[in-house]
């Protein structure tokens, strides 16, 4: 029997937690800023067709019907007390307005999807995650259909058990890259069944709906978008990290205290991450570049600041699988650093071809990135150069500027 969950989008809580948190911060600090976002397909061999476009457009239209129900809001406030009363009231009246805020089309010849979002930052910030989930589902229902759910439950149990046996604490971070909602539901169902007698555990999921369904904690940090937007609006790359961290702390007072490090490269980040900020924040998140080099860098930075590294946590979230997470944990143990892992694509989009079980079914590499804030270009300088995003001229300008200052 079909359920409401089979007809995504269906709930405002089918969203990653960090987006609600960033929406509150944007409302507090930049309520009138107008932004634009763009869809980026990092793998041009993954081409879309008219069927995928039609399914995506239908899903986008349905977003206008989503409202936050009373019980959903009560749940959100009960598990996330750092979300303010005023924000919960805002969310109660929030409505997606896709007809005015989203443009979606297809270049038939190239199979390239053109998806753009524009409007007030506080209004449009909730689109990214559900849109990426819709894009992925549309692709795998209409383009690459050579797959099925066989073995997914057993596979996630095997992965999760491997992680907890190795003492890894990890969360499921796969909403944006999931094959479809059913896949993510299978994943969380399996993770909720893991044995509890090992040193490691599944600490929760980024997806608020599934956290509620399976009685686990909704978890999240902050996205690059926050730092990118602030740097553009305030006109500074060299101090963009510190401004973003200060404003975030003023909103959440130490809650959600994991600092994202690679918006403009980790060198610029650590130059901003002084004793005051490093003391206030619980730890840092690695999302690009070598995790092993990063561990040494974090350890040495805390030591230089006179802070005991063993009191801080490093969250890893860059293209992880269980084997990689376990190896990183061993490395962290050598430095007495606490670590957590956010695993996304490997949990919610790890399939084999139905026609040849030994052949992997390619996972997506789709993103939606902030392009403009009040007309000012927003960029990201990842530690992985292939993940640089934004206007090319502005990327070059920022690279030159930060290099001249010795920050890149």
TrEMBL record:
Enzyme class label: ligase
Biological process terms in GO annotation: NAD+ biosynthetic process via the salvage pathway
Origin superkingdom: Eukaryota
GO CC, one annotated term: cytosol
Keywords, sorted A to Z: Glycosyltransferase, Ligase, Phosphoprotein, Pyridine nucleotide biosynthesis, Transferase
Entry EC no(s): 6.3.4.21
Entry-linked InterPro entries: N/Namide_PRibTrfase, NAPRTase_N, Nic_PRibTrfase, Nic_PRibTrfase-Fam, Nicotinate_pribotase-like_C
Substrates-to-products reaction catalysed: 5-phospho-alpha-D-ribose 1-diphosphate + nicotinate + ATP + H2O = nicotinate beta-D-ribonucleotide + ADP + phosphate + diphosphate
The protein's annotated pathway: Cofactor biosynthesis; NAD(+) biosynthesis; nicotinate D-ribonucleotide from nicotinate: step 1/1
A molecular-function term among this protein's GO annotations: nicotinate phosphoribosyltransferase activity
Stretches assigned to the Nicotinate/nicotinamide phosphoribosyltransferase domain: 168-397
Nicotinate phosphoribosyltransferase N-terminal domain ranges (all copies): 13-136
Keyword Glycosyltransferase: yes
Post-translational modification as stated in the protein's UniProt record: Transiently phosphorylated on a His residue during the reaction cycle. Phosphorylation strongly increases the affinity for substrates and increases the rate of nicotinate D-ribonucleotide production. Dephosphorylation regenerates the low-affinity form of the enzyme, leading to product release.
HAMAP family with a match to the protein in the record: NAPRTase
Cited function: Catalyzes the synthesis of beta-nicotinate D-ribonucleotide from nicotinate and 5-phospho-D-ribose 1-phosphate at the expense of ATP.
Similarity section: Belongs to the NAPRTase family.
Protein name from the UniProt record: Nicotinate phosphoribosyltransferase
Protein species of origin: Coemansia guatemalensis
